Amino acid sequence: MIARVDHLVYATPDVDDTVADLATRLGVRAAVGGRHEGRGTRNALIALGPRSYLEIIGPDRSQPAPHTPRWFGIDTLDRPRLATWAATATDLHALAAPGSTVAALLGAVVSGSRTRPDGVILRWTLTDPIMAPGGIVPFLIDWGSSPHPAASAPQGVTLVDLRAEHPNPAAVLTAFRMLALDLAVAPSTAPALVAMLNTPAGDVELR
Asked: Which of 5, 43, 58, 201 would bridge with 33, disulfide CB 3.0–4.6 Å?
């Protein structure tokens, strides 16, 4: 399962504050990722493995406010939270095409891009992140020929476990099986993702 985790999305109302907090908790400081032009967000990254990373994402006050709500519920957050995750996949257009058995789970395929601080432009395709119920079922992402962000992100943290909590575990497990994913789901009053990270500061739970 860990091999399918492309990245964890840690949404926050303030990127800089959260980077500082995680530097203390994890013992590794996230590096600036880039700005998502037109979406009103920016990010910072920490590698979780060779092709997996933690994305700290929040408002980019240097951009005009977007015409639609920022992804991952960022506009309504009062504290950081593990909002959702992305699973690695290829041939997204075929997976999300009308008539596909998983199309209803994925929504439309869209493209994204951002420029790294060193000027390298990253481009990717992904399925609609807002389709995931409670952030538990992942969206899918394909980096194509772009360098994977984990390769240039600060090292030292490893993702060792990812699990979910949900009021209706059976429904979530059905969705996971449709996407060929194997993730433990425990009953809970509210949806939540829980990641266990091995860090220079010891094992840290992030939710």
From this structure: 43
Query: Are 187 and 169 spatial neighbours (Cβ–Cβ below 8 Å)?
Result: yes
**Residue-range domain boundaries for the chain:** 2-155
> Using one digit for the tens of pLDDT, what is the confidence trace for 85-100?
999 999 999 999 988 8
Measured in degrees and rounded to the nearest 5, phi and psi for residue 29 equal -95, 130
**What is the Cβ-side half-sphere exposure of residue 186, based on CA atoms within 13 angstroms?**
8
The tens digit of pLDDT for each residue in 143-162 reads 999 999 999 999 999 999 99
User: Exposed (0-12), middle (13-18) or buried (19+): which is 187, by Cβ within 10 Å?
Assistant: exposed
* Residue 173, CA distances (Å) to 162, 182, 185, 189 in order: 14, 8, 7, 16
Pick the CATH number of 2-155 from 1.25.40.10, 3.10.180.10, 3.60.20.10, 3.40.50.9100: 3.10.180.10
Distances, alpha carbon 170 to alpha carbons 137, 139, 164, in Å: 12, 19, 12
Tokens of 41: 């967000």
Closest CA relative to residue 155, chosen from 25, 19, 2, 31: 31
Q: Do the strands 185-187 and 158-166 form a parallel or antiparallel pair, or are they unpaired? A: parallel
